[in-house]
Amino acid sequence: MGRIRVLSDAVANKIAAGEVVERPASVVKELLENSLDAGATELRIDVESGGRRLIRVADNGSGMLRDDALLAFERHATSKLSDVRDLLAISTLGFRGEALPSIGSVSRLALETRSDEESTGTRIEIAGGRLLSCDEFPSARGTVITVRDLFFNVPARKKFLRSEQTELAHIASLVTHYSLAHPDKSFELCHGANELLDVTPVAEIRDRVYQVFGASVLDELIDLGMIERELNVAEPEEMASRVFALRGFISGPQVQKLNRNSIYLFVNGRLIRDRLLMHALSSAYHNLMPPSCYPFALLFLDCDAEEVDVNVHPSKTEVRFRHGTFVHDFVRDSIRDRLMQARPVSNLSPEWRPQPAADLPFSDFTQRIENQRFEPIPDAAATAERFEDLPAFTLHASSGPAPRLDFSGEPIPVAAALPPPAATRMPVPDTHGPLPPGAAAASAVQSLAALPDLRPLGQIHDSFIVAAGRDGLWIIDQHVAHERILFEKVLKQMADGRVEKQQLLMPLLLELSPAQQIEYARIAGELEHAGFETEPFGTRTIAVKAAPADASLADIERIIREILEVAENELRRASVQDLRRGMAASIACRAAIKVNMRLEPAKIEWLLQALARTEYPMSCPHGRPIALRYTTHDILRSFHRI
Ligand SMILES: Nc1ncnc2c1ncn2[C@@H]1O[C@H](COP(=O)(O)OP(=O)(O)OP(=O)(O)O)[C@@H](O)[C@H]1O
Ligand SMILES: [Mg+2]
Q1: Which of 26, 36, 78, 80 to mutate to test the pocket of ligand 1 (most atoms within 8 A of CB)?
Q2: I need a surface site. Which of 174, 225, 238, 597 has the fewest CB within 10 A?
Q3: What is d(CA 426, CA 429) in angstroms, rounded to the nearest whole number?
């Protein structure tokens, strides 16, 4: 007798559950997606014990007919696809017909549902994949699915669950994500008797961001608006035009997260994790933020369903784009352009420092999760952990400047060092009363306007330029300021194809490692473009005959090695644009004025003027801030004048 057998449905469902149902949040995801596909506008999620004991999702969607309700638990039973061509253009969140049978095979599940077409509803009970009952049941239109004792029959899987707090944080994050994608719907999330999220329908995503994250986070974000780009594609019969649209919110480079948890990506309304989009996003911040930091981003990319294959992962959290390069560059360029327009400045605020990723953005929301009472759970190891191990789907703190105070009261003259425009004659009471409460964040863009008329006062430690501006006191790092100036200059010269060069009297010979040799062969043309005239000189040696004018002789070797290293490490798959930015950054960093260098007043003046003329004077190509500002607000507050 042969050895190969066809597995029973029960076993097949359990195997599928292994992929689809990783943790309580995966159940919430599948149930929420079903509710959204059913056209629900009100979604309520109840969980107990971090979702281990109970998950209930109730919706006011279309509901199911009795026969359909039974069928829904069959493997590969779906109302969303009927033939193979549908797979090419999936417009619903679900399509595999796997979620309900999978969840039903690893829990005790009850479904209550009624469609408009039937006068009584249906209640079905399933435990560990076995149908226990199917009865008539009086219910309102819509569907309520209750999942109890997740993994009760899969002890191995249960062991992998983390603490209740962590599982709850995953769920909270997930529900929040979906609420952001559907501002026109109401979402309610309760953990036992505690309400964690309750948002009513609003007209705009902006309003939903406000509901979820609060005013201070919203203030720090840059609205992308609606950006569209068209792609002409050759279809078998005709040329077709495809429109890609990007909307959402991003933070300026001053908000630096230590992990990716504040990045929310949606493609056609589907929450996904995607390397291509992540790469596009980080390229947009390239040279504006240190490489190990991440921004806050809430991005919605919409395109024709045919442009994206969603059938590439069992839990439907990954997608594949038909025109990946186009999508990548569209997202990168759109975000970068908006960042360039916004150009925020760092405020020197005593309390400011990048916050660890463990702080959630809407602190009261965090508090609400942390305040939950958690019962002891058997696996002790899991109870020890806290928020540190939160996964990609989590919400995290913004780390912008600390909140600052509003002004009110009578005007008094401020320090003579400050130039006189009306804005600086801040209205303050002439009494030293207690500090009033308040939290108006400074307008970042306004402050940038002060840059061209800064009045230099001197240098601290021969390294930092101190200057008076109409909006306060500025401290500028001379090295990074010059680095930014040179970076943009070199980049521009490269773009125009006319980099200023210096011919070397004697060619400089550089020996390369095999890996460097390979990189050299790959980017020799680009090196030339950046102003380095080089040629192979025997095995694994190159001769450098000319170099960019700004680089000193002593630095040329280091710059070339750095470029080769960068090319090897991070830019192998990056675009020519990224490579050029990397080269320009290396040249600028080496050639820039160093710290511990006394500067003549004229030189300081020149540096400030040149900085004001740069496109992005706020951070160096490696993402460090260039200027810190102690605002007049802060000065007044520190002297207890407001
Ligand atoms: N909340 C709901 N309201 C109305 N119908 C539902 C609901 N949940 C499930 N259904 C019906 O049950 C079917 C099976 O659901 P299930 O989640 O198993 O598969 P799917 O959503 O079609 O695909 P996927 O496995 O990708 O989620 C759905 O196609 C839908 O017709
Ligand atoms: Mg589904």
Answers
A1: 78
A2: 238
A3: 10
